[in-house]
Amino acid sequence: MSQQQNYADFHRRSIEDRDAFWNEQAQLIDWKQPFSRVCNYDNPPFARWFEGGLTNLCHNAVDRHLKDRADQNALIFVSTETDVEHVYSFRELHAEVQRMAAILQAQGVSKGDRVLIYMPMIPEAAFAMLACARIGAIHSVVFGGFASHSLASRIEDASPVAIVSADAGSRGGKVVPYKPLLDEAIRLSSHKPAKVVMVDRGLAGFERVEGRDVDYGQARIEHMETVVPCEWVDATHPSYTLYTSGTTGKPKGVQRDTGGYAVALAASMKHIYMGEPGETYFSTSDIGWVVGHSYIIYGPLIGGMATIMYEGLPIRPDAGIWWSLVEKYKVSVMFSAPTAVRVLKKYDSSFIKKYDLSSLKALFLAGEPLDEPTAQWISSELGKPIIDNYWQTETGWPILSLCNGVEKADSKFGSPGKAVYGYNVKLLDDQTGEELKGGNQKGVVAIEGPLPPGCMQTVWQDDDRFVNTYWSSVPGKMVYSTFDWGIRDDDGYYFILGRTDDVINVAGHRLGTREIEESISSHPQIAEVAVVGVADQLKGQVAMAFAVLKDASLLTDEAARLKLEGEVMKIVDGQLGAVARPSRVQFVNVLPKTRSGKLLRRAIQAVCEGRDPGDLTTMDDPAALQQIKDLQA
Ligand code: ATP
Ligand code: MG
């Protein structure tokens, strides 16, 4: 209780005494020159944090640790795809980053230039990100799973001077060549990068383009000893651009600053993740996503922690692989996604129990709603706090979480906790814009400006889109909309009910897709479910559910299917009432998701309504949507 009371005071201070609060947090990083102003919000909604300060992300992540921890583990690379395991100390990481920085400089890259990174989860990708930060170049990492079309639009948008890439990635033991996709993307794009630095893993042969393609291995040898000092940049200098997942439409290019981001991450290591210097952080994400930027690369390293970079699946060679890494590298903080936990849940829990997990303090999960059955399962298997984090690519670090030494008892399953310090979170009525102050009212989750340090500065090269997309959706107010729909209970815990686009309106009753999904997934046979609202002449909209069974062999015949469908409907009736009952529950093998594991409800909805599903370039498995299409026929 007192812990929670303390946190309430901590949060209040972060809002009411904003500049003093962030001034203190800013002492967690190194500054070449101190800032003269903590927050300039003279031109809302554009916030300029730590103006006048000079710093560097790479210095804070790498160089400043050389004094005390040069020989400590910094980057732990594990690939179950290529059976390679290699540990870099801070000293070694520092050397590799300088070599990469020297190579980029030799290709003409300098401060403010963009460098696009299209790479699998290999150490050179981390070197490239840190090398860009080192020389003040702006990186734009594109997830390695994207094909030419998506890649081309990102090349066009970022107009990079150089691209860093590799011959191939590997997924489930299958080599995925990257170079042909990259060459095709450059062909499709109207912008042509001058140079392409190619890391050759020896997985797939590729054709070199004379005069453009540079061999990393050879260039590295030429620059073994080249010294590249950190370029001190303004706190507001852009460090990178990154695209949102594209779950709801065209991805948006998020632009992040330098100083605010470094401070936000350093503070989050202390107040959210409880990671200490010298410990090991393991985030199972990919560098192509924001979690990978903040919590595979920058956050842990800024915090003086070792970070694990894992290339491979969670179930290969078996479902114990992640936990074996926790034991081996004494991981203290782990970060993953609900979708990955749901995968593990299908396997025997002896895969978890087999390992010594005593080093682990907590497991953080983010990216999509963490349903209660999944949270319960992993919590009881691990016996550790499971902390749901709610945030967005735009914010760069959590908006909702439990903070400051949380205990298992503080978690409420189904809730990502409370507003994180620095975020002035409000629930607003989406029609009137009025603030909903009472408990248990549903509204849009919004953030009053300024956004705290570390959040997006703007949409890359499109200030208007930043203002129009994020700050203009609530009538009469300039607030940042998350476009998520939520509810806050009397204790200040939030529950995310789904995206505002996904709210279903059945005969005047507004329901979050998440509420219905949560209810359906409490059926013991349901592994995963997506609910969408489908236009209906009579009721406006009806809910349709698509569920994956834990054991598909249960669907022996039509009678068995009908029985299951009836059971699911009955559960929803009992928990939420008949208005929320889906008009149909259909069973599928797999649900359509983005490459980052998010349900593509808009695509399912479009297919159900016989519309064109729109931009599907971020979709993982096209067969999943086809199956739903076939069911509608
Ligand atoms: P786009 O903005 O391009 O449509 P996206 O919103 O999926 O894609 P991300 O920034 O990767 O892109 O995802 C952020 C969104 O993910 C949040 O707005 C929210 O809808 C969902 N989300 C993230 N974490 C959680 C969580 N802990 N609980 C519920 N939902 C979450
Ligand atoms: Mg979004």
What labels would you give this structure?
single chain; 633 residues; alpha/beta; Rossmann fold; GMP Synthetase, Chain A, domain 3; 3 domains; eight-stranded mixed beta sheet; seven-stranded mixed beta sheet; 32 strands; binds adenosine-5'-triphosphate; binds magnesium ion; ATP binding; Propionate--CoA ligase
What does this structure look like?
With 633 residues, this protein is of the alpha/beta class. The protein has 3 domains: 437 residues, Rossmann fold, CATH 3.40.50.12780; 56 residues, no CATH class; 130 residues, GMP Synthetase, Chain A, domain 3 (2-Layer Sandwich), CATH 3.30.300. 32% of the residues lie in helices and 25% in strands. The strands form 9 sheets. The chain has an 8-stranded mixed beta sheet, sandwiched between helices. Strand 28 and strand 29 form a beta hairpin. Helix 17 packs across helix 18. The chain is globular, with a radius of gyration of 24 Å. The mean pLDDT is 94. The protein binds adenosine-5'-triphosphate and magnesium ion. Magnesium ion (MG) binds next to loops.
Topology readout:
Elements: H1 2-16, H2 18-25, E1 37-43, E2 46-51, E3 54-55, H3 57-61, H4 66-69, E4 73-79, E5 84-89, H5 90-106, E6 114-119, H6 123-135, E7 138-143, H7 148-158, E8 162-166, E9 168-171, E10 174-177, H8 179-188, E11 195-199, E12 213-215, H9 216-222, E13 233-234, E14 240-243, E15 253-256, H10 259-271, E16 280-283, H11 290-302, E17 306-311, H12 321-328, E18 331-336, H13 338-344, H14 350-353, E19 362-366, H15 372-382, E20 386-389, E21 400-401, E22 418-419, E23 424-428, E24 442-448, E25 458-459, H16 463-470, E26 479-488, E27 494-499, E28 504-506, E29 509-511, H17 513-520, E30 526-536, E31 540-549, H18 558-576, E32 584-587, H19 601-608, H20 622-632
Parallel strand pairs: 4-17, 6-7, 6-8, 7-14, 8-11, 11-12, 16-17, 16-18, 18-19, 19-20, 31-32
Antiparallel strand pairs: 1-2, 3-13, 4-5, 9-10, 14-15, 15-25, 21-22, 23-24, 24-26, 26-27, 28-29, 30-31
